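hi! just following up on the protien thing from before. the input was this:
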Amino acid sequence: MEVKVWFCMCIFLNWILLASSYSRKLLYSVHNAIMEFDTDTHNVTVLVEHGGDYVYAMDYDYKNRFIYFPRYNTRDIVRFPYSSKNITLQTVIQSLSYPIGIAVDSTNDHLYWVDYNTHRLSRCSLNGSNRTVLSTLYHPIVIRVDVKNRWMYIVESLSGISKSRFDLSEKRTIANFTSKPVYCMDIDPDEQRLYWINYNGDMKSAKDDGSDVKTILSTTPNTYYYAIGVIGSYIYYAKNNQLLMVSKTSESTPTVLYNDVNPIYSIFVFNASGMFITI
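and the predicted 3d structure came back as:
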């Protein structure tokens, strides 16, 4: 009995350390590197150079502790261990057709991605094996998975956001884009809400069934917004080379956190609640 209690305490303490270390970090991509931004100190570090390509998405394997991202022009998906002192890129899968969106399902050892050119949704194992095409869509650009509640969300940039189970059952449209396209979206699995920014500069939120649509912020119109990440009470997003933060409260005033010298194409913020599955 004492051994069991001690083991549980070790797990709990390990989770606390992981949560405190990752929850203060935000990663973002520029044309030649993945950058690490400390939300407490605002220090920025070059985490890894990825070869001068466009990286429009990142996701994290909380179980095995790898960052995954697609390289658009190189047409592959790579990964690297994080947090690690020895960061080396590992090729997971190659010979793709402009991969643009990516999502990791650590629980089932699955990696999902969408191709901009072929409009396909595909899946493989986290090591790149068992590659299979699941569906053909209409201009898919973003994919997110809610591992906790077992839902997949896909942004088809010119039409809307769809929601389905991982086996593509129960698929339905939960948001329609009537005029302006969308190139970024994130989910908050704890609040079960989605967040996105359209080309018209409207940052919107809705429940994961498409109801209760709210405008969080009206920002610069006719601008491509590629990066958004949600954690806790805040939304992180990029406008060209600026990294910004805004409260989830409607009509809040955004704060500029950092001005990079290069445009920002994707953001990943760590969800401390996901750390339990690393144990």
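The first strand starts at residue 25 and ends at 29.
The mean pLDDT is 89.
cheers
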